[in-house]
Structure formats: structure tokens, C-alpha cells
Amino acid sequence: MKTYQPTGLGRSIVNFFQEYLPTLRGMSRHTIQSYRDGLVLFLRFAATDCGRGIESLEVADITADRVGRFLAFLETARQNSITTRNARLAALHTFARFLVAGNPDHMAALQQVLGIPFKRGARAAPIEYLEKAEIEVLLAGIDRSTLSGQRDHAMFSLMFNTGARVQEILNLRVRDVRSESPFQVRLAGKGSKMRICPIWPRTAQPLKDLIQKQHAGAESPADQPIFLNQRGAAMTRFGVRYLLQKYVAAGTTAAPTLAGKRIHPHSLRHTTAIHLLKAGVDFATISQWLGHASLNTTMRYARADIDLKRQALAQVFPEVLAPPKGGAFAFHGDGIIGWLHRL
After folding, report:
1. Among residues 36, 151, 269, 275, which one is catalytic?
2. Which residues of 222-241 are buried (b: 16+ CB within 10 A; e: fewer)?
3. Active site residue: 190, 195, 208, 264, which one?
4. For the sheet containing 184-188, what is the strand order?
5. Catalytic: which of 93, 165, 270, 275?
6. How far is CA 151 from CA 16, 154, 227, in A?
7. Could you give the CA distance from residue 239 to residue 176 in angstroms, rounded to a whole number?
8. Domains observed in the chain
9. In principle, which of 90, 184, 212, 317 could form an S-S bond with 132, CB 3.0–4.6 Å?
10. Quick one: how many helices (H) and strands (E) in the chain?
11. How far apart are CA 157 and CA 172, in angstroms?
12. Active-site annotation holds for 301
């Protein structure tokens, strides 16, 4: 097997993803993976732009001109949106700041990279969420006579109830659910910040039943993920998105308004936030409920509610949503890109 001796850039990449982002910055797994994907794209572009292999790239190859060409490549060749372009640039900015500390001799060039501005013109997409009748149609359309249907009903009910991010739901273990009064779940949010969310009895009971059926006789059931796919492994975000789109499509006959909405798993989180707001819950409580790092994030839901001119502040769905109370190393085989994909 071919072995690659890492360059200074290679060693920095390892430290960036293994130590800096998760430990010093406390970034979530999802954010780290997004940064990884952006850096992989840039490394491939830079290798082609330099006419050398990725494993031979050095810190000196990260220049403002090259980053500028990379951003243009994203918008033209890959047809990426301004939002995606800015997200990739944010990852490169973070990496450049990290490199400055360990490579002071390249500070001037890296500062030029940091000086590349984000591009204006990206309009925030309107916040899509479900009305009470649409929620009822979606949940009623799930066939609970099968184990997979019981899983889906319990999962989407929990997402509406808690407003949790989809990855927070998928990371849930049996030990994180209290299925006796007072009913609640423990969620690990961004930066591994823990929070407790109370849940309705009508949400807790399906969860309890699902756990008993799926994990009966399992070794160390408390450590097992709650939501499993047909292969017995933890479900993925893509699996949840597929299921949600399936049930939304099936519900368009009973609720025609669903056909005009672009619903994705994060829309369920928006749904919880909007209905909490309409129920008269204060912003500070909603912010804690959803695990927002800043109250400013929560405030955008007030704007969404005004923009959409929804009526009846008390419209909330109590059946689903409860009012809140490093050593030596070497790259092997597939090199840096392979190492990044194995993160």
C-alpha cells in the first residue's frame, strides 16, 4: 500500500478537524462535515489549478487569487447559489484563521484570503411551516399497523413536539427518553449542549411502545439509538427527508395546501417555533426550547409570522406540541481526501 508523508498543510488539516473544530471551537458534527465538504472541493480545485497532486499541496498554495477562482468555479461550473458560495467561503475563512496561528510566515497571504468578502444578493428563503390541519393530515397518513409506520409516527410526532433538529432526534438513545411522568427527552444540541424538553403523553406512549418492540432482548438497550432503519442501523437525515417527502406527497389530497410548500425536516422545527410564538410563548423560552445560541435566531420567527399574516394567535396543536414549561501519522491509500471522507 502506498503511503503518503503529510505536508505541513496535511498536518494542519488533521489538527483542524480533529482538535480545533470539535474541541476548541465546539462545533457540531454537522458543521464539521459541512466544512470538510467545502475543503475537499477546494483541495481538488487547487490541485487542478496548480497542476499537482492534492498530497503535494502546501500552505503557500492557499492564496486569495486561487480562492477567488474557486468561488467563481462554484457559481459557474457547479451552478451553486450565493448562499452555498458564502458557506464554502466561511469554511475557508475559518481554516485560514487557524493556519495563521501556526504559519506566521504566510500571514500576509492568509490575511488576503480573510479579506475576501461574502457576496450579497442571497435572499433568505421564506420560512416554510405546517398549519395544524396539515400536521394532522401528515400524521394520520402514516400506517401504524407496521413497525416502520409506528417508528415514523413516533419520530415525526416527537419532531413536532420538541422542535428538535433532525440530527438531534437521530442521535437519541433509549436512555435519553423518560417514558414515565414527567415525560421528557434529553437532546444534545450544537456544541454538545444538552437540554431537556418535556413531551406530551401522546408523544411519550408511541415512543415507549416503539422502544419495547425494537429493543426487546437487545444487549445494553439503553445505549441503542431509538430510530432504526430496516437494516437495524441508525436512520440518516436523508432517510428522514425521504420519508417526510413521501408522507407530504400522500397528504396533498386531504390537504391541498401541502402541494405548494417545500417541506423538509427542518420545516418541522420551524413549525414548532411558529406555533409556540402564536400560542403566546415568550422569545426567551422559545430560544431555550429550541436550543438557539442567540435570541436573534429566534426573533426571525416573529418576522415570518408578520410577513405571512397568519391569524389567531392561539392556534396551536396541543395534541402534538406541548406548551413549554494527535501523535505521528501518515495518510494511507487514498490520501488526504480519503482521510477527510472517513471523518
Report:
1. 269
2. eebbbbbeeeeebbebebbe
3. 190
4. 177-178, 184-188, 194-198
5. 165
6. 38, 5, 7
7. 22
8. 3-123+328-341 (1.10.150), 132-308 (1.10.443.10)
9. 317
10. 14, 5
11. 14
12. yes
> Residue 242: which residues within 8 A CB-CB, separation 6 or more?
none
Provide φ and ψ at 146, rounded to 5°: -110, 160
Task: Give helix 82-102 / helix 29-50 axis angle, nearest 10°.
Answer: 80
Q: Are 22 and 12 in contact (CB under 8 A)?
A: no
pTM of the entire structure? 0.60
The pLDDT tens digits of the residues spanning 145-202 come to 999 999 999 999 999 999 999 999 999 999 999 988 889 999 988 767 888 988 989 9
User: Which three cell numbers, joined as nine digits, stand for 237?
Assistant: 437525515
Q: What is the pLDDT of residues 294-323, one digit of tens each?
A: 767 776 676 655 443 344 333 444 444 444
Distance in angstroms (rounded) separating the CA atoms of residues 167 and 193: 13
Q: Which long-range contacts (CB under 8 A, 24 or more apart) does 56-61 make?
A: 56/7, 57/7, 57/9, 58/7, 58/8, 58/9, 59/8, 59/9, 59/12, 59/99, 59/103, 59/106, 60/106, 60/109, 61/9
Q: Which three cell numbers stand for residue 224?
A: 441503542
Element (H, E) at 157: helix 147-162
269 catalytic per annotation: yes
The identity of residue 55, as a single letter, is E
> Contact 251/193 with Cβ under 8 angstroms?
no
